[in-house]
Amino acid sequence: MNKTATTIPFDPDSTTFPLRKDVPQPSYAPSGIQTAWVWGEKDELGRLNLLTPARVKAASRAEIQTGEMVSLKYAVDRHEVPAFARESFKHNIKILAENIAYDDTYFLNTQSGTQWDGFRHFAHIPSQRFYNNTHGEDIVGPKANHKCSQHYWSDHGIAGRGILLDWRSYADKKDIPFNSYDADRISYSDLEACGRDQGIDIRPSSEGGDIQIGDMLFIRSGFIQAYHSKPPEERNELALRPHIIGPDDGQRWAGLKQEMPMVEWLHDCYFATVAGDCPAFEAWPTNQDYYLHEYLLALWGCPLGEMVDLESLAKKCKERGRWTFFVTSAPANVH
After folding, report:
1. Partner of 122 for a Cys bridge, out of 115, 225, 255, 293, CB 3.0 to 4.6 A?
2. How many Cβ atoms are within 10 Å of 106's Cβ, its own excluded?
3. Which ranges in the chain belong to alpha helices (H)?
4. Which pLDDT score, from 0 to 100, does residue 189 have?
5. How far apart are CA 244 and CA 91, in angstroms?
6. In 3D, which of 124, 120, 142 has the Cα closest to residue 334?
């Protein structure tokens, strides 16, 4: 049965959702800021609400055909020095009883490898609001609480139809120069051409395209391929470039272009999640007065995955001639 989402809170099982320009605003949204806080004032899930039982069931029926499995998690200890000079992973083995029992202890910055950026990771900078009116004081300090904590995602679960756009293979095929270690930008028109080459119309289904409500988007920029093409000394030096927020940031990484066609597309497709294989998903630093992180995480509540290992998946999709698949993910259950 067809149903159009018009009134907050939206019904996740709706079959039609409004364009970004037509999204109603909740009373508690920052004045003059266009949000997509549409799931209710107490919502903790954002676009994960779109992963309804009906959509997950339909995706499993359509996409699970061969039973083959591909891991998307890059080994957490593969980066000697993670991007943005983040802390390196440390693994210690604790002896409980010699030759009988051992424990493993890990120290890690969750941003150093394959991860989901949570809603508390990046705010809308002008208003300093995180998703659904979460504030910095909700995250740290004497008033800290669990508002928009990622453990809600773990309680809900992440599963549904994934779709891969293999930009790096398309760029190589068309001899398009692309440097993963600079702020090279993948535009909407680039993704449109990439999709066309794969036989995918990247417009939302409401416009006659192949993107379905609740799809989980993956974009391969080829960063992991580029990472392994460099000697350790060079890639570690690049990861330690000076980091400041702004156009003069020494940390430079390829990714999606900051442009309004990209913003409108990412919103209006109603992806449940978006993810890529590069350190920041979007090109870094931004060349505009905004980051895509602000829209995706803070204004829309769309989980954003980074450093996802898409190498084996891209090979399997090309081998099968299918670019959609069933995907599951288990976010950390940490309060």
Report:
1. 293
2. 10
3. 53-63, 136-139, 151-156, 167-173, 188-198, 223-229, 232-239, 260-268, 292-293, 311-320
4. 98
5. 29
6. 120
Name the DSSP letter for residue 298.
I
pLDDT in tens, 288-306: 999 999 999 999 999 999 9
Quote the CA–CA distance of 186 and 175 in Å, as a whole number: 14
**What's the whole-number mean pLDDT along residues 242-261?**
94
Residues 6+ apart with CB under 8 A from 229: none
Q: Which residues of 155-192 are buried (b: 16+ CB within 10 A; e: fewer)?
A: eeebbbbbbbbbbbbbbeeeeeebebbebbbbebebbb
Please, are residues 138 and 145 in contact by the beta-carbon 8 Å criterion? yes
Instruction: List for the chain the helix, strand, coil content (%; round to 5).
Output: 30, 20, 50
d(CA 45, CA 150): 9
The residue with tokens 């950390």 is 332
Reported as a pLDDT band with limits 50, 70 and 90, residue 191 is very high
Per the listing, tokens 């449940």 go with 272
Beta pairing class for 304-306 and 158-166: unpaired
By C-alpha distance, which of 28, 36, 51 is closest to 267? 36
Q: Note whether 47 and 273 are within 8 A (CB).
A: yes
DSSP E strand stretches across the chain = 90-97, 101-107, 115-117, 158-166, 185-186, 216-220, 255-256, 273-276, 304-306, 324-329
Q: Are 276 and 219 in contact (CB under 8 A)?
A: yes
The structure's pTM equals 0.96
Cis peptide before 9 (omega within 30 of 0): yes
Secondary structure (3-state) at 282: strand
User: For the chain, how far is it from start to end, CA to CA, in angstroms?
Assistant: 38
User: Among residues 105, 62, 83, which one has the least CA distance to residue 322?
Assistant: 62
Q: Alpha-carbon distance 121 to 141, whole Å?
A: 16
* pLDDT for residue 71 is more than 90: yes
Mean pLDDT of 222-240: 95
